[in-house]
Amino acid sequence: MCFNPISTSGSQKKRLHGNDLKALANYMKSDQCQKVFLMANLARLNLPYPEAVFQISFFRNNPVPFYTLAKEIYPERYRPTLTHSFIKLLHSRGLLHTCFTQNIDTLERKAGVPEHKIVEAHGSFATQRCIDCKAPYEDEKMKKAIREEEIPRCERCGGLAKPGIVFFGESLPNKFHSSIPLLQEADLLIVIGTSLTVYPFASLVDCVPEDCPRVLINLVEVGDFDKPDDLVFTGKCDEIVRALCQELGWEDELDETWAETAMGAEGVEVAGSSDEAAEEKIESELEQVRKDLENVLNVSEPKAGTEVPIGVEAIPAIVEDEEESCTRQVNDVDKEKDGGKRELSEGKL
């Protein structure tokens, strides 16, 4: 594990007294740190053809590819990672205020983080409903359909039933928008395992108070973490989280919290596992899914000079009105924070 200390400038008083994990741990143990916010994207899978499979208009016409893929990515197959358990530990310690996540796999829930503290920006497998009449669809029936690669249909109107994942062309959850102002309460923002390239999620890092320490824990350095109290730690998230818990004196609690996720997890893979055999197994499964999807979609890698088939090009995740709404919310937060309106990049999933 290594970390990159951020150079500081200006006369602003720092809350952190150093650029290492010890300084972060000391701050987290102080009375100044009462409300910790998380931004996480701990998903492991590099999905084949996500633009087509997760496009709502394509799904309406041909739901088979999604349910072919859903069997491989369904949450019951995976166990939370040590980092998921760190989020649960923050809750148990009374520090976690809100966890914003891009993950759709519900592993934060499986790790024990309460639902009311989770904001699933892109939806999740936690709920499902008919895409036409919006009637809820039973969990067990959806699980059975996904296991058996069947197409679940609404018992009320016969429409397609779909997990609550936000598809390309659908609006982000209301809870995401309504939770943005909460970031002004943050004493600490921890950003874990995300590229910070997907908007409007990536814009959340600018919604905390100006003097709020922001910490990036990621395999590589991303985003603009150049404020006096910003810290960047690059490496494997689980290793960095363990090192932080060692500084906090929480390592035993972390291990105990993670051990709880093993109950009933026989045959369940650890999401994000770095074990080579697990990596090869997942890649092999994804390659098979890719082949299956090619057969269903009748697509393959386009040759030079050919057009990409309809349904494979990226579609905006949020409609224009929603982009404007989210931009307005973030700008409102900025106005309150420093009296000046900042521009927010146009958001696409």
From TrEMBL:
The molecular function terms of the Gene Ontology recorded here are: histone deacetylase activity, NAD-dependent; metal ion binding; NAD+ binding
User: Subcellular localization, per the record?
Assistant: Mitochondrion
What are the UniProt keywords, alphabetically?
Answer: Metal-binding, Mitochondrion, NAD, Transferase, Zinc
Q: Which GO terms describe its cellular component?
A: mitochondrion; nucleus
Known InterPro entries for this protein? Answer: DHS-like_NAD/FAD-binding_dom (IPR029035), NAD-dep_sirtuin_deacylases (IPR050134), Sirtuin (IPR003000), Sirtuin_cat_small_dom_sf (IPR026591), Ssirtuin_cat_dom (IPR026590)
Cite the PROSITE patterns for this sequence. SIRTUIN
Q: Does the keyword Zinc apply?
A: yes
Keyword Membrane part of the UniProt annotation: no
Residues of the region (Disordered) are 323-349
Its needed co-factors are: Zn(2+)
Q: Which ranges carry the Deacetylase sirtuin-type domain? A: 1-251
Q: Name one Pfam family in it.
A: SIR2
What family is reported?
Belongs to the sirtuin family. Class I subfamily.
Which PANTHER family does the entry mention?
NAD-DEPENDENT PROTEIN DEACETYLASE SIRTUIN-2, NAD-DEPENDENT PROTEIN DEACYLASE SIRTUIN-5, MITOCHONDRIAL-RELATED
Q: What is this protein called?
A: Deacetylase sirtuin-type domain-containing protein
Which source organism does the UniProt entry give? Pisolithus tinctorius Marx 270
